Amino acid sequence: MARKNPPDVEEPGQGDIEVGKPKSWAAGIPGVVHSMAPALRDMGVNRSRKTLLAMNHKDGFDCMSCAWPDPDHRKAFEYCENGAKAVNWEATPITVESGFWAEHSVSDLRQRSEYWLGQQGRLTEPVYKAAGEDHYRPVRWGKAFSIIAEKLNSLATPDEAAFYTSGRTSNEAAFIYQLFVRAFGTNNLPDCSNMCHESTGWAMGQTLGIGKSTIAYDDFGKSDLIIIMGQNPGTNHPRMLTALEEAKNNGAEIVAVNPLPEAGLRRYKNPQEVKGIIGRGTEIADQYMQIRLGGDMALLQAVSKRVLDAEEAHPGTVLDTQFIQEHCEGLEELKAHLSHLDWDEVLEATGLRIDEIDELAARYLRAEKVIITWAMGLTQQKKGVAAIKEIINLLLLRGNIGKPGAGASPIRGHSNVQGDRTMGIWEQMPPAFLDAIEKEFGFNPPREHGTDAVQTIEKMRDGELKVFVAMGGNLVAAISDTHAAEAAMEKLEMSVQISTKLNRSHTVVGEEALILPTMGRTEIDRQASGVQFVSVEDTVCAVHPSWGKVEPVGANLLSEVAIVSRLAQATLREKVNVDWPGFESDYDTIRDHISRVVEGCEDYNQRIRQEGGFVMANGPRDSRSFHTATGKAMFTVNDLEHVQCPPGRLILQTLRSHDQFNTTIYGYNDRYRGIKKGRQVVFVNPEDLAALGLADGQYVDIHGEHADGKERVLRNYRAVAYPSARGCAAAYYPEANVLIPLESVAEGSNTPVSKHAVVRLEPARDGARAGTPATN
C-alpha cells in the first residue's frame, strides 16, 4: 500500500474561534457531506467503498464509534457521520514511519495536541523508550514481549500491575486478556466502563439483577413514550435518530431531558428519506425539559409521586398491581418515602416549573408502553446510582419492564464496552465466573477484588502500582483530575500501550514505555488457519461477528488476539496449561472456551455464525425474572440530594463536540453548537453571564471549587452565550477534566463526577485572548 504523507496540521491560533448560531436540526445533506468528503480525501474511492459500505452489515465490520444496535433490515448507507469519521480515522493509509521517533522526543510529543497526534497516522511497528531516555526507538516484536514479561515477573506481587481495557476490544481479545491477567495473578482490570456506565451497572444490578438494557431494538418502534435523559444522540450515537423517527411515525411521544438544547433532540433530517433532503424532517421532542444539572433524581421522584397520587385518587386503575404483586418488592417503603417529598426542593433541584413536571407525568400516565433511555448525563453525577434507581422505580410502577415497547435502555458509548464486561473485563467479577475459569483452565484465579480506573490512578500516585498495560484507550486523558493523573502515570516503572494511533497516553509515561501497534477492526485478519473474524455485543445484548474488509496498513502489524497471546506466552511460560498459540492461530478455539465459561454464550461458534448472530438472554426482558437477592425487582428508597451551588457560581458539565469520539479529536469544529476553529470555550446562559458581570465573547478563567481547596483552573476560555439551563455551564472533554478532582466520584460506582463541578468564572488573568488551554 502506498503511504500518504501526514497532512499539514493547522492548529487554531490566538483569537481564531468563530461562534455562530446553534443548529436546530441534525443530519440531512450536511451530514452526508461531512461523512463522505473526509473519507474520499484521505482514504480514496476504493478504500472508502470497501469500508463504508461494509460497516454494520452482514459479512462486514462493526462500527467502532458507538454500541448502537443494528436494525434487522439495514439500508445500504446504514451508517452515520461519526461512524464514517471513525472509519476514516482508523483505515487511513497514512502511517508513522521509523524516522518519526528519532525526529520527535517524548517531551516534544507531549507538547502536541490530541488532534496533531492522531493526524500522524497509523502505528505499524513496536517502539520502546528505555529508562533515562526521551525517545521511543523501534524494536522487534519478540524483544518487546520479553521486555514486558521480564518486568512483570520482577514484581513483588502481581497486584503491582494493572491491565486497562477500552471498549474497542473484541470479545475474543477481551476474553483471553482477562484470562492472561488472572493467570498472572491479579484482578486489576480497570476499564472504560468505570468512567461511563458503571453507575448503570450498580443501579440496575441491585434493582433488576442485570446491568444491561431490558429492551430490544424493535421496542423503540413499539413504544408509546420515550424519555431521553442525559444524552445527545445527534452527536454521540446518531443512528439512534432513525429509531426515534420510526417511533414518532408510529405515534410515540418523545420527551428530552437535557440542560442544553441539542439539535438531534429537536429535529432530524434523515438523509435516506425525501423529507430529510427537501423537507423539514421529523420533529423529535414533543417536550423539551432543560433541567438543571444534577436535578434528574428530583424530577423522577416527582413523576413517581404523581403516579402514586393518581393511584390513590383512582385505586386499581393506575399501577400495574398484578405485575407488582408477582414480581416486585418494596413498594410500601417507596410510597412512605415519597409521601414526604418536598416540592420546593424539587423545583430548586430541577430548575423546572411545576407545570412542566405535571406535563411529563401526564404523558407517562397516558402511555401503556414506556422506554426511559439515558447516558453519561445521569451516570456521571454524585447521585448517579440513585438517579438510575429512580428510573427503575418509575418504570416498575406501571409494569414497564418485560413487555414490548417498554423498558430501561442505557445507551453504551464505545462499540464493545458491554461485550468486554460480559467476557470478564471487570475488577469485581462474581464467584460463578471465576469458578468457571478454574474449571475450564485448571488454575484458581485470584478472588480479591482489583482496582477500578480511579483506584488505579490512586495506587500509581501512592507508589503501589509499578506497571500499567492498556489495551486501547487513552486513560490519562479520559480520567478526571488531569494533572494528578499525569503525575501518577509518571511514577510508574513501565507503561505499555496497545494502540492503533498516537494519543496523549503515549506521551505521559513511566520510566520505561512501550507502544505495541495493533490492527483495526476494518482490516483483514489473516492467521495460520485462515481469515479470522471477531465478535462484539451491542447496547441491547445482540452479539454479532465483525469481519475486516481492507488490507492492514502495515505488514508488521499484529491483531489484538495475537498480541495478548504472545505476551501471555512470554510472561507465563509453563505457569498455566493454556494453548496461547492455538488462540492466535484460530479464534474458534477462543470461542469454544467462551461457550463453556461465559453464561449465555453456550454453543458460541454455532450461534455467532447464524444470520445476524444471536441475542444474549436477559431475564427482565425475556421472562420478567430478576436475579436479585430476593428473586424480585426492587423498589428502592433514595434520599433526595442535589448540587448546592453558592451565589456567583455555576454547575459545569463536560461534553463532547460533534467533531470528536471520546478523547479522539477529529477537528476543531462543533457544527451543531455553532463553534468553529477552537475548543477553548465555555457555554453559559446569557442571563447568567450578565449576572456575573461578564460579556459574551469575553475571555475567562474557569476555577474549579472543591472541598480540598486545590487550585484547578482552565485559563483563557471564551465565554459563549448559549441557551442552556440557568445556573449551568459546559466545556469540552477531555480538556475540562482538569476541573474534576480524582476523589469526586459517584456514590457506589466510583465513577468520576463529570456532570457536577461547581465553578466560578473570572475575567482571564492576562485579560486577553491568549487562546492557549493552560491548565494549571
Walk me through the structure.
With 776 residues, the chain is α/β, with parallel strands linked by helices. It folds into four domains: 18-91, no CATH class; 99-195 and 416-621, 3-Layer(aba) Sandwich (Rossmann fold), CATH 3.40.50.740; 198-410, Dimethylsulfoxide Reductase, domain 2; 650-763, Barwin-like endoglucanases (Beta Barrel), CATH 2.40.40.20. Helix content is 34%, strand content 16%. It has 31 helices and 31 strands. The chain has a six-stranded mixed sheet, with helices on one face. Strands 23-30-27-29-28-31 form a six-stranded mixed β-barrel. α1 packs across α2, α7 (141-154) packs across α26 and α14 (296-313) packs across α18. The longest helix has 18 residues, at 296-313. Residues 768-776 have low confidence and may be disordered.
Key attributes of the depicted protein:
six-stranded mixed beta barrel; 4 domains; six-stranded mixed sheet; alpha/beta; Dimethylsulfoxide Reductase, domain 2; Rossmann fold; disordered C terminus; 776 residues
Average pLDDT works out at: 91
Strand line-up across the major sheet = 4-3-16-15-14-5
Can you tell me the number of structural domains? Answer: 4
- In angstroms, what is the radius of gyration? 25 Å
Strand content: 15-25%
The major β-sheet equals: 6 strands, mixed
Give the % helix.
Answer: 25-40%
SS field, number of helical segments: 31
